[in-house]
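mind reviewing this stuff:

——
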Amino acid sequence: MASFHKLRTAVQENAHPTDAASIGAMRRTLEELLTGSGLFSEVELGLTDDPDRLVIGVCRCAEKILPWEAGMAMERLWRTASAGTHWEAHHVGCTESLMEFEGAVTLDDSGHYLTVHVVAEPSTPVEGAEASEELVEAVAATSSGVVQEV
């Protein structure tokens, strides 16, 4: 994850966030891909003004889908969503109770960038308080900016 954050920071230091229309288009694309995959029973995406997570999402895995499976699927869906961009980087982290995905793209030669942060929990809670604490921390991290539904 540290290497992804270094790459993302380097892009952010040398570029500017893309326009609201492009961010909204990526949110809609990801929402369609995540919902259409059948791997998630709940998908909620929004927009923030946090440069580390311009598009944020919280999902619940479909029944019998484990977070690591959701992570593998998220990588495939991201490849589709980020196709045609100038540059792309991402990171996926999974535990038995949480999938966390972070992605970044530059959209053109001028370096306008877009960032994504999505977390997903299993369909049934993992026993123990540790699972819910992880999710609360991840969601809190994704919601440090202003959330806007589009």
